[in-house]
Design goal:
Helix content is 5%, strand content 39%. It is mainly β.
Amino acid sequence: MFMRISIIAFLSLAAVAGGELAARAIDLTVVPSEVEVREGSGEVDRRDAYSTRAQREEDEVIGDNLTSNPPSLLFVAESRSPLTPLNQGGTRDILKVPLNQGGTRDILKVPLNQGGTRDILKVPLIKGDLGGSRLDYKRHLLSVSVLSSHQSDEVSAIVRDLPTSDEIAVAPEVRSPSAQDDRHKDFTSLLPTAGTIATKAEIPEAVNGNAQQLGGTLPISQGRNVEGVYVAEVKIRFVNSRGEAVDKKGNPIKGRISEDFIRSELKLKAGDNYSQQVVQLDLQQLQQLGLFDKVTVSTEEVGTDINVIYNVEERSARSVGASVTLSDDVGVAVPLSYVDRTFGTNGQRLSVEIQPSLRGVEYDVRFVSPYVAADDRLGYSVRAFGDRRISEIFNKDINLPNGDRVREIRMGGNLAVTRPLGDWRGTLGLNYTNISTRDRNLNLARRDVLGNPLTFSGAGVDELYTVSFGATLDRRNNPFNPTSGSILSLSTEQSIPLGRGNIVSNRLLANYIQYVPVTLLGISESEALPEMLAFNLQGGTVIGDLPPTEAFRLGGRNSVRGYDGGEIGSGRSYFLASGEYRFPVGRDVGGVIFVDFASDLGTGDSVLGKPAVVRDKPGTGAGVGLGVRVRSSLGLIRLDMGVSDDGEIKFVLGTKQRF
């Protein structure tokens, strides 16, 4: 049976040894779409004057007005092997194309460009009716790059109804692993962007010259601009701590975590256009899962498309730690820790820290079930803690009547839930804390040697029942190892008048960090510690009742280096500013030059008992210094030497960056 076709189209094809021309109609009205949300988590240590953890579409449619007229048909020409004669045996072929004279296997012969070296087929579409829509000969031109036969396995040319476009150049989909450019050419000009999609009838000569070398996967590139480029595939690659994807025997490193699970947590999907903002959201989601030590993103070129590779370094399934410490307070202690990241499913983990000593046991037990993007399931955490410390509020030789220094004993727990709130991630918590002031033998202490109260209740014990809410806006390029961008954290904590002390207050905190990459040294080693400027601004205040033990403590390793903890002051409000210049010294060694400043904003005398005033604390202080950073198997180790504005020198040994 003969079927009359209302449109004639010349469909172009790569000149190969044999091929079959097939045309199929695709309904453009069926367009899948989905919306996903991503979220991270954050928490604020309410005992300190700082935050302990600062904590995107449909398939590309060429032409903005595709839906301004009723969509018609999409015709696709494909090359297949071996050759099958068209219209053989009375079959119903959609398109009949006569073979060349002599029976050669060329289905359609179209002259190549002059010179014959740059294989570009230019096939004008004939005027005709296509699903009720008229094609304008002058406004629709198909220009298809064709690779030589040894480079291309398949070429698919796609023609779409574009009612508002004057002319269009459609790049073919190329899938071949064979040809790889060893000369590391700049392929930026080949990549379509929103401003360069099809405004000319011909592909530029520069593109034609390079197009014959686009037949395979190109070397990984992290520095070139790939914004808006079509993502052919999203890959997961497991790497070791050195960033290597293969072991010493050359075998690929295998991961414990399912690749499908990782992909399900990513917002970037195959078929999307690359977006750096979406990638940053993906990194935030992977970071809050707590399953990875480090994640980086790289790209590889496949024709004019790219593959996006998430290089993930897994954390160990389980970890055990033990050490021995000696302190003036408890003497010899043995801190022990255990973390199980396979305790539940989908990133759930259990962590236990205990520190037995001759004077008691301190503990911190936490279960975390992170927010899972694939299920849009609420994340939550449960924590119980008990710790003991020498007070940094009641220090500087004004002790208890019996001569002992004041100890702060804290016990309590909290339940928190977390989920994304647009670009922010929010955490809502219910908290309980029992705070008591005691002597060395854990006897309750109500007043210091000067008779000043140590607690708000006056009985040596205060209880805080609070509801907290925190929100974090993370704009860092990579939360695992940021080199640019910023992160802003805001929180509020409202106490409920229950328990001893009957405290009614609201605690407000803000924390902002900015990272600025610089190249003052001109070091180009990609694996070295990054060179940058880092800035941190913090502020907070308490409205209402304020137990002395809840005042903001200024000075110390995470405040102003060069001072001991709480040595600058303890106030109802505070402001803190820090700046660092971080630079590489070697592959795994870096240096830091820093300056810190903090002030209680003159609120030291508004704290019950005026602990900072009677201890003659300045209320304002600054420190400068130098530091060393060493990247090790245990993580980043830091050693800082700070000099206060009083000339005192203090050393700080710890892990991770100050901020």
